[in-house]
Amino acid sequence: MAPALPRVGRRTVEALLAANAEDLRARSLVLVHGQYASGAPPRFTVTLDGEARRVHVRDEASVLGVVAALHEHRSAGASSDVLVVTTGVDDEQLGWDVRGRAVRRKTLTVENAEVVLQRFGATALDPRMYRERWLLEALVEAEPAEGGWPRVGGVLTRDAALRALAAERLGLRAVHGSGQDGQVTLDADTLLAWSHSPAGPRRFAELGSTERAELKKWLAEVAGPAVPVLLSLAEAGLGHDALALGLLGAALRNPGAQPDTVLALGGLFGQVMPRRSELAVFTDAVEGTLTRWIADARTSQDARRRVVAVLDRADELVGKAGLAQGLTASRFLPFSFTAQLRRTVAEARRSPAAGEAALADLLGHALAGLRPDHIQAAETAVRVARRLSGHESAVTSVAAAVRAHVSDWGWLDRAITVLWAGDPDGDLETGRDLRALYEQARDLRQRLDQEFARRLAAWAAHATAQHPDGCLVVENVLDTVVRPLSGQAAPLLLVLDGMSSAVAAQLGEEAERDGWREIVPRPEAGEAPARLAAVSMLPSITRVSRASLLTGEAASGGQSTETSGFTAFWKRRRKAAALFHKAAIGGEAGHALSHELMTALSSDAVVGVVLNTIDEALDDGRHGRGTTWSLADVTHLRELLAAARSYGRPVVIVADHGHVLERGSRSDAPTAAADGAESARWRTGGSAGEGEIAVHGPRVREGGGTVILPWREDIRYTGRRAGYHGGASLAEVTVPVLVLLPAGEEAPKDWVPLPRELSTPSWWRTPVTGAGNAPASTAATADQPAVSEQPSPARPTAPSESAKAAESRPSARTEAGPPVAESLGSTVVSSEVYAAQKEYVRKAPEAKVVAAVIDALVTAGGTMSPAALAAAISATGRVRRNIEGFVATVQRLLNVEGYPVLGFIDGGHAVKLDVPLLREQFLPNSQDDGGNEKTDEVSSREEEKA
């Protein structure tokens, strides 16, 4: 049997023509020993010696066929056209009549080495390539149609040839693109991404067996030991599931994996089933790649869809093979995330400590960053568990109660809203446990509202603006809070109609994130700074509370009353003033704010703006079951803050009253029938029933000075809406007040900063690892407001000293000087791993600055607000105004291989350092301070990597 003829393609023909260009000046026939590839173009154009010449290719198996092709060409073709005939007929059979017209007067033999040399523009080939016929043939066959092979200009090395061949055969350029040098990066990341492309694995499976085996061998050398498993899956038609199968390989990390698990996994891998050690390497590579993809997915919808597709497919395979039992601890699978979320909420019901441990596991799941709503529900469950297990709260006075509400109980209201919304996926088990925590928290708040209502009725009988009995009343806010700020730059007063303490807490956090700093009047010696809160008029409705706020006296009325009263108040104090409502706020096309408002802001006048978004959302349910409010949710708020910053104005954000939310009622009818109902949450006439309180006195501006107010949030006298106000609950009567300055600006005299660590209750914050976490007492008293737990000074401080301590307390332990040699921060920045990381970060911060960041976070228990972290950095002599950008740079230094050592949590309102992971990445051989063994968390991470 005659040997098979060499296959000749277009590129081979072009190479032969280029090599014989000089002979083709006089001849137009080229005889080639071989068979022209089916599907190759029979006609094309080449450039020879600067002249474009048309090429006709014929494949003929006999002498007659060759002769006929020659005659047809001579009679029909142009004189410059070239005829190429591929044939298996030998020269003796063709005779001199045909050969005499051909280039070199003979049939040309295809030398693949010469063709490769010519097509790469090389001067020589790696000697090893002459012994690898498969490689030369593949390079001749696979040359790209567009642009051909890259020109090397020197010796074509075997590695360069294989790199080019792999990129073309696998279609890697279409998946990954090329680097600046035109080369495709060949690593496990690239190949795993390729496996997820529509046609990538199939292209490899369609190659010849020799070529597949040799490419697999070479790619394992250059791209890592995970590649053979990946390519074996591609050969078996499982390449599209390679990533999902790699995740399932984690089931065999446990040496005690059940035989059923091994068999089930083997069923999914089929004949490809690798050895356990090979599977472990492959699983590690897949998890590393997905970790990076998930990081990209936080900012890219395309990346998110890619990640979700892989993880959903992995979940599907888990169910198909019955592998759930062996993969409940997976850091990647959606079903394991759901299981860990269930466990976190269930454990939180059992005890705060158990909930915190389960939450730590949940936060270590790779999907935590992609499912913020689920994490919010879990964190809230743990926070509420901490609060419920803490001290007993009591209402001892109205003044103490509103301060406690804005600093503690209002945060519980915020948590209750999240618990009420339930599990974002509607999981029944998680929802049941969230509901149980909701009921407990709601019972606590209802008891406090009942106690407050009794105190409020007694207080309202005699309280006035002149004699408020220790309270800041809403009509005194202008004189007590806003006027002292007007000494240097006129303030901007933003009235957020209906803003509750829970909403104020969220807006305050985001304002800090946007570069604002909250300030409060300097407290008395020995007291900690605390957020301001006022008491509304009664009933707590817009007509009386907002009018009283803006006129500076007990009043009632609409916009005209507010505008004239606001102007008159400041005129008496020799200040120009302007107040803007609704239609006067928005600008024309191309302008966010009206010309009149911007003109007022650029002047020396005190400017007030009333924003109705929150109150209107309660009326029409526009915010739905949303659990959060942001600056962007309040129409015009972000634009007004930006304008205030540009004009150097301090900002006061204040409510006129708060609100309660509709929870649970399915009927549009009133929940309580009563005579004299004037609004949803107040009435006149009759006597107070269950859940109500009768209130009278000079602060009651409706009903002739006597009204009946419900203190229970589920009582309403009108149809159902999203929320209500007017009643006697703390959430309605408490008026939160936020005073903001642009970060970096000096606080006015007798005002001090309020860092987030002081405005947030201790039970809300992440507890200090290994330290006690007993919350500060928030039992409300007339003289001592409920405040967050703070380190106690060694001696009572003078007011000025207290202010400084409050501003810098989160980093007090690091301000004494640079980190000492024994500190964790200095040890990390001195490590070899840190030095290697620093090579890849342009303009990396000084080592002492990074060490200060680490030590400050360690001292604070791993979590700090951006403002407090900036203060810690300033102790090194380096002021960081763009703290977010700085943290991003430090993340590149500390987050080795994408592991989240440092990052933002809580929607970007706090910076968290994972101390055990930091030690594992930078100090793998270090021991804990307290013993000779690593922490359980580090050990578990090592087991995952084993």
Q: Summed up, what is this model?
A:
With 946 residues, the chain is an alpha/beta fold. The chain has 37 helices and 26 strands. The radius of gyration is 38 Å and the shape is elongated.
List keywords for this structure.
single chain; 946 residues; alpha/beta; eight-stranded mixed beta sheet; five-stranded mixed beta sheet; 37 helices; disordered C terminus
Describe, in plain words, how this protein is organized in 3D:
Helix 5 packs across helix 6 (about 160-170), helix 8 packs across helix 14 and helix 23 (about 540-550) packs parallel to helix 24. The protein is elongated and about 130 Å long. The protein has 37 helices and 26 strands. By secondary structure, it is of the alpha/beta class.
Summarize the topology.
Layout: E1 7-8, H1 10-19, E2 29-33, E3 35-36, E4 43-48, E5 51-60, H2 63-76, E6 82-87, H3 91-99, E7 102-109, H4 112-120, E8 124-125, H5 133-142, E9 155-156, H6 158-170, H7 172-176, H8 188-195, H9 200-205, H10 209-223, H11 227-235, H12 242-248, H13 259-269, H14 276-297, H15 301-321, H16 334-350, H17 352-363, H18 372-389, H19 398-421, H20 428-460, H21 477-482, E10 492-496, H22 501-513, E11 516-521, E12 532-535, H23 542-551, H24 559-572, E13 577-580, H25 595-601, E14 606-611, H26 613-620, H27 637-646, E15 651-654, E16 660-661, E17 677-679, E18 682-683, E19 692-696, E20 706-710, E21 723-724, H28 730-733, E22 734-742, E23 751-753, H29 756-759, H30 799-808, H31 824-829, H32 832-838, H33 847-859, E24 863-864, H34 866-874, H35 883-894, E25 902-905, E26 910-913, H36 915-922, H37 936-945
Parallel strand pairs: 1-3, 2-6, 2-7, 5-6, 8-9, 10-14, 10-15, 13-14
Antiparallel strand pairs: 4-5, 11-22, 11-23, 12-22, 15-22, 16-21, 17-18, 19-20, 24-26, 25-26
Helix pairs in contact: 1-4, 4-5, 5-6, 8-14, 10-11, 12-14, 12-15, 14-15, 16-17, 16-18, 16-20, 17-18, 18-19, 18-20, 19-20, 19-22, 23-24
